[in-house]
Each structure stands twice: as C-alpha cells, then as structure tokens.
Amino acid sequence: MQTEDSSSIDGRKPPRVVALSGGVGGAKLALGLDTVIRADDGRLTVAVNTGDDFEHLGLHISPDLDSVVYALAGISDPLRGWGRANESWNFMRALEGLGGEGWFSLGDRDLALHVERSLRLRQGNSLSHVTAHIAARFNVDATIMPVTDDPVRTMVHTDTGILPFQRYFVGEQCKPAVQGISFAGADQARANPALLSALADPALDAVVLCPSNPYLSIDPILAIPGVRDALRRTTAPVIAVSPIVHGESLKGPTAKIMRELGIEVSPAAIVSHYGDLIDAIVVDSQDAAEAFEIDLPVLATNITMHCMADKEALAREVLHFARTFGASHRSTLQECLP
Ligand code: FO1
User: Fold this and answer.
1) Distance between CA 265 and CA 242 in Å, rounded?
2) Residue nearest ligand 1's atom 13 by CA
3) pLDDT score at 251
4) Which of 24, 36, 123, 320 could form a disulfide with 315, with the two C-beta atoms 3.0–4.6 Å apart?
5) What Pfam families would the database entry show (predicted)?
C-alpha cells in the first residue's frame, strides 16, 4: 500500500493518472494533466465518453474522442473547443448546395479524420485501435481510449420526445427540457480492458473525473458494466473536479439540466450524484463557503480554465491534492471492500 512519502506525484517518480472525460470541458483539464504529467515523464490515460458518437452522412463521428485528441495534439479550435483550428468549410457549403444535411458542421480537415476512422472501422478495426492510430499520427503521448469499443448511444428524454444526443445538443441547441437520460447499449457494452487494467494498477496515483457534464458525459462512462466497480476498487484516490461554478455550468448545459431534473445546482449536488465513487472534490474558490456541506475532502481553487496556464495550474493542484490525502484515505476504503 502506498504511503504519502512514496507517492509518485510532485516529481518523486513519474506519476500515473487516469482521467475520465467528456468532450470540450473535460479536454481542457486533460490537456493540463497531459502537460504536467509529461514534464514528469509520467503516464496519462484518458478514458473518453462515446455516448455522443453517431453515424452521420455514412461516417462514424466520435466528438468527445476527437475533442480530447485535438486538444492534446494542440490543434483544437480555441473558440469552439470542438473541431480543428484554422478550419475551412468548403465541404459543408458544397453539401448544403446539394440540399444535404447542414445541421451538424464538419470542417474540411476534421472530415478527413471521420472518413479515415470510418474506413478503418469498416475494415474490422476496433474504435480503440483506430483512436490509438489517430492519436499517434498527431504525436499525442497520452493514451486516449474510448471507454468501450461497443456502441453506446446517449438518448435524451425531453418534453418534445426522446432525442439522440446530437439531435438534442446540436440540432435542438439543448433547448428542450430534459426529463431523463438513458444510454442505449450500455448494458451489453464491454468496458475497455485497458481502462480496467489501468484502474487496477497498484502504482496508479490518481483518478480524475474531469469537469465534464456528469449526466451527459460521465454517466455514460459509469453505465458500462465494470467501470463503477473498478473505480470503487482502485487503490488510487478518485477526485472529481466540479463542473459547476457559483450556480452555473463551467461549460454547456449542465446547470440547465440539473434545474430541469429538479437538482440543486451546486458542487454538493455533484458530490451526492457521484456518491461513493469519489474520495474528494475540487470546487471553485467562489464555492469555498459551501465546502462545509460536503462530507469529503474539498480543495477550493480557481477551476475556470481560460488559458493554458490555468489548465496546467489546475492539473498541478489536483495532482498535489491527490497526493496529500489520497493513499491513506483510499487504503481505509479498501479494507471495507469485500
Ligand atoms: N457542436 C456544435 O454545437 N455544432 C456543431 O455543428 C458541431 C459539430 C461537430 C463536429 C465534429 C465534432 O467532433 C464535434 C462537433 N460539435 C459540434 C461538438 C459536439 O457536438 C459536442 O461538443 C459534444 O458532443 C459534447 O461533448
């Protein structure tokens, strides 16, 4: 069992970290973690939500995987967060000129990735394999993997009916009121064995739940059989970074969805949503006064990542936080597991 003195975070030995992430918001922290961990010769594994994936124009689109890959490759669009920087839109214009579907925008450079991925999948390669190939082509060091190679599709139950995720998110701009969320295929999906083995690694230093939407982006990961159990059994501290700051979302519709589902919009509600899966939470300094409501170790710091320095600073703080309480807290929990 690890002790604080032998911890590998803060440069004593190369840190090993697993991050669970959705798309744009999670990718920001994943980039900070990657930069900090690489500087220490450590190893980052990012397991990414695939509930947003869909077939579009005959192509397999994996938006969250792509947001993470592009971010870690340093080529993501800095304003949109999704897709590539310096993008051109000739394909979309040409498609619309033909009367084709224009509601989901595929940039020319981005399109190349979807074509190549779809081809490789059709040739029988797994999504993990194809993702690893793409990440390598972009010189990404971190291991980026889909949480499963099997199809899982997030379905948003709204006041206007049940919508596939991208129809709700992009097509309807998240306007319909959410009444529930389900993950088609999750029950039958097999968790990525590489994720399970990374979580079972006794040398793992931390598991970070990125500040992605817990309901739309992290829950589809947790819905895959075996993932919750692996999180409960990992010897590393599991730390969530709050997606809520001062009653609003860091990014996207998290706060809106919480309100629609009748959930108080606060970091404390995020803690109760994750329940016994997490050992600690990182909240924004603006929510520091709420820490007393949370029955877990809380770090209050600046979690709004506006620039690269913010991303790295938050990553450093999360990893330091993991070291300061992690090992002893986790070993106590392990003694309680059957
Ligand atoms: N988001 C949008 O709001 N509009 C789009 O047209 C759009 C296209 C798109 C294409 C490729 C891709 O990888 C992502 C794209 N996204 C778009 C983002 C994506 O829908 C969401 O950010 C995620 O699914 C939520 O995490």
Assistant:
1) 11
2) 63
3) 86
4) 36
5) CofD
Domains of the chain: 7-56+140-336 (3.40.50.10680)
- pTM more than 0.90: yes
Q: What is the DSSP letter of 88?
A: -
Compute the distance from residue 82 Cα to the ligand 1 centre, in Å. 6
- Specify the ligand 1 atom closest to the Cα of 81: 22
Report how far residue 19's alpha carbon sits from residue 282's, in angstroms, rounded to the nearest whole number. Answer: 14
CA of 283 from ligand 1 middle (Å) equals 26
Instruction: Tally Cβ neighbours within 10 Å of residue 129.
Output: 14
- Strands 161-164, 153-158: pairing is antiparallel
CA angle (314, 316, 321) in 5-degree steps: 95
Q: Which of 75, 101, 109, 170 to mutate to test the pocket of ligand 1 (most atoms within 8 A of CB)?
A: 170
- CB-ligand 1 contact for 66 (6 Å cutoff): yes
Q: How confident is the model at residue 332 (pLDDT cuts 50, 70, 90)?
A: low
CA distance 30 to 209: 10
Of residues 250 and 58, the one with the higher pLDDT is: 58
